[in-house]
Amino acid sequence: MSSSSPARANWIAIGALLLGATAIGTSALFVKVSETGPVATAFWRVFLALPLLWLWSALGQGERHTESFARERKLMLAIGFFFAGDLAVWHWSIMLTSVANSTLLANLAPIFVALAAWLLYRQRPRAKFVAGLAIAVTGMTLLIGGDFQLQGKELIGDALGVVTAMFYAGYQLTVTRLRARVATSTIMAWTGLVTAVILLPIALASGEQMLPVTAMGWVKLAGLALISQVAGQSLIAYAMAHLPSTFSSVGLLFQPVMATLFAWLLLGEAIGTLQLAGGIIVLIGIRMVHLAENSR
Fold first, then answer.
1. Over the chain, what HEC string results?
2. What residues contact residue 287 under an 8 Å CB cut-off, 6+ apart?
3. Segments of the chain scoring below 50 in pLDDT
4. Which of 38, 99, 144, 264 would bridge with 104, disulfide CB 3.0–4.6 Å?
5. How many other C-beta atoms lie within 10 A of the C-beta of residue 98?
6. Using CA atoms, how far apart are residues 82 and 152, in angstroms rounded to an integer?
7. What is the model's pLDDT at position 272?
8. What is the C-alpha separation between 36 and 222, in angstroms, rounded?
9. 157-174 burial, b if ≥16 CB within 10 A, otherwise e?
10. What is the share, in percent, of the chain residues with pLDDT greater than 70?
């Protein structure tokens, strides 16, 4: 194998991570125009993706599809639990506080990933990594903004945004650990089923609108399932097999950058100078973290 092969594989994984972040960056747009309730939308996002994910896994893995679940069922169940918590709690957060606050706090997952890697795996973060993470989070704060309230339902919504970040950190760490042993398609199929099973009773208990009222409503849900779940999460799961969990987590801060760009292009939401500067700062922070991880 040539010496350039590992470097090439690294850049392919980074490309997959950024493409995946771009794909899931569209999710907020689909949720915003969905005709179903927020948790119901999360359920349909996962449920409608299952036929394609299961076909992909069955064709690609054959008997190993079931064997992998039997061997790694604890981690598979954990991934489904973390992802269901991430989606449900984030959507509840959006209902109680501003979208900006909720998105900002939910994307603090890299901090919890770094802390968990330090406490659980003794991976003490280097100064370059901490500096890059701080720069990326600062850029994200400028990009999204936020008006934090220390009272009422807004405070509860902000707190749920932090809980969302914890769930997503758990999801990223568990996927990174499992992806080294199990194919992406198998992880996505089995954990998607677990996520859907968890989300359905939550959506029903919330009493929100479960079914779209128009054909276009189903098209929007199908787009969310195909773009955010099948494409986005699969690309991210692939990348996590080849990249450190700490870098993957910070790299996913590319998501709010793309979400802001999509909102500008598709919804006409203005991008000011401060937001533009924030997006650039996020990219600088991600690059610094990449350099820090390469020097490890």
1. CCCHHHHHHHHHHHHHHHHHHHHHCCHHHHHHHCCCCHHHHHHHHHHCCHHHHHHHHHHHHCCHHHHHHHHCHHHHHHHHHHHHHHHHHHHHHHHHCCHHHHHHHHCCHHHHHHHHHHHHHCCCCCHHHHHHHHHHHHHHHHHHCCCCCCCHHHHHHHHHHHHHHHHHHHHHHHHHHHHCCCCHHHHHHHHHHHHHHHHHHHHHHHCCCCCCCCHHHHHHHHHHHHHHHHHHHHHHHHHHCCCCHHHHHHHCCHHHHHHHHHHHHHHCCCCCHHHHHHHHHHHHHHHHHHHHHHCC
2. 132
3. 1
4. 144
5. 20
6. 27
7. 77
8. 13
9. bbebbebbbbbbbbbbbb
10. 89
pLDDT number for residue 245: 78
| pLDDT at residue 1, as a whole number | 45
The rounded mean pLDDT for the chain is 83
The most distant pair of C-alpha atoms in the chain lies apart, rounded to whole Å, by: 60
Residue with tokens 């989606």: 87
pLDDT at 248: 84
The tokens of 117 are what? 């890697």
Of residues 5, 14, 9, 51, the one with CA closest to residue 290: 14
- Reading the block at residue 292, the tokens are 């820090």
Single pTM value for the model: 0.81
Instruction: Return the CA Rg of the chain.
Output: 19
139, 285 Cβ separation under 8 angstroms = yes
Structure tokens at 146: 């936020």
Q: Give, in degrees to the nearest 5, the angle at Cα 227 between 181 and 256.
A: 90
Label residue 156 exposed, middle or buried (CB < 10 Å: 0-12, 13-18, 19+).
middle
Number of Cβ within 10 Å of residue 43's Cβ equals 27
Contact 56, 186 (CB under 8 A): no
